[in-house]
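ESCALATION

Customer reports they have been waiting on this structure for their group meeting. Please prioritize. Original submission:
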Amino acid sequence: MPVTNVKGEKIRLADYTWDELESRPDRKSLIFVQTIGATEEHGYHLPMGTDTYQAVAVAEAAAKKLSNVIVMPEIPYSYCLDTMSFCGTVTFSAATIISMVGDIAESVCRHGFGRLVLFNGHGGNKGVLETALRDALQRLAGPAANLRRDFRMYLVNAFSTIAPQLKAMTEGKDYGHACELETSLMLALEPSLVKMERAVDEYMQGDPDLIWMVRDMKEGSVSGIHGAATLGTREKGEKLFKLLVDDLESFLRRIQ
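Update from on-call: job pushed to the front of the queue and completed.
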């Protein structure tokens, strides 16, 4: 059964036929959202696809509340060099991500759509996606190097703009990876995949501004987490999910 929005229209690009999409009367005003997750370790208790599950759920929930948002098939791989010492993590190189984003942007632009939002669910992607966005726009500008006026790209990093609310929700001394907040969110979204009996509390040591510059997370975390996973609850997760959805919805409304 296709997921639909407030007007009963499908929100997933993969559910459309080409002519259904081409014949939509609001085609020119459609906003495409590309979710980007990750396949990487999330401690002993959360699945590898945590970032992907979260990004897709938030994007689709926001799209349901609007009438002109299309959610593209998710990208389940990211820039994960710092967690590669943990079994199962898959990483893309920065060059691969930049090329992939450019190809997606070119495809969306070629079909006459004017807006593309990269919705990033993986913290390690922030820098490379900023570069990828700029590179894609420059690529679309062509030899004249004049940026197109009929195509806009945006980057939204989940969690980034609601930091004050996140701090207020956190009972542990910090949050960061497979932590209290991510555990709570997964308890709300995919509880059958969460092994709370295996959750632990662990914090990487050092200056908070430098913690995430560690080249190998295994140097600072035995379990592969940073935070108090044992404090995760479904109630916190439901509150956090609403914050994330409302934040993305607000952004999408601003670029109508």
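Sent to customer with the following note: The mean pLDDT is 94.
Escalation resolved.
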